Amino acid sequence: HVQLVESGGGSVQAGGSLRLSCQASGFSFSFYGMSWARQAPGKALEWLSTISGGRTTYAESVKGRFTISRDNTKDMLYLQLNNLTADDTAVYYCRRDIGPYLGQGTQVTVS
Asked: What are the DSSP calls for 15-51, one per residue?
């Protein structure tokens, strides 16, 4: 069955960086577009970025600060978060776009 397990979240000061990882299993990872999304307290789920067929797209709110990447040999998805602000505080989710499937999330707190 499809499993997505995020890691790498934590607490960081404003201006800092984090690298989130997502280990995928249960499907042919390289065949699927993958995304990152986040949910801040009291807010709806927000799409952040997608990587598919070698192309990447970003929400305006994170463009230039976040970078999505993947390693198909390891079934891994990544999100590099730079220049973080308090508005980036949220639970971050890895998503397989067809399904869709979400992981359990990893908390990012920026103070």
From this structure: T--EEEEEEEESS-GGGS-EEEEEE-TTS--EEEEEE
